[in-house]
Specification:
Layout (H helix, E strand, L loop, with lengths): L3 E3 H8 L3 H9 L6 E3 L2 E5 H15 L4 H12 L5 H48 L6 H4 L1
Antiparallel strand pairs: 1-3, 2-3
Amino acid sequence: MRTTFTIGDLAHEFGVTHRALRFYEDKGLVAPARRGQSRIYSRRDRARLRSVLLGKRVGFSLAEIKEMLEVYDLKDAQPPQLRLALQRFNEQIGALRRQKQDIEQAIADLTHTTEIVAGMLRERQAGPLEIPREAAE
């Protein structure tokens, strides 16, 4: 198993840009070693990057993600820190569930509207029956 990674390795693996990785480094979320101008990422950096991207995907801010990563870094995390992390996780789960309900309602509303518009289109495409002039006379 590999123990070090280049910026290109991680950018490719996680589908992020080199710029994004440098930004995360500036924010203190990853801390690659330097070999000249090259950044050398450890397995720890790779795991932290995975956590950062997961945190972003579920809606945490980078400040919140950094705070939670610091809790994980403390092998002897104290109960208050763990309670805080648990509280944040539960709050985010609640927020995501509310967003999910809003999205499901929006999909239902849009589906209903689509059905109405499709019905109107069918009616207009069928149009009124035209009676030939000869039959009308």
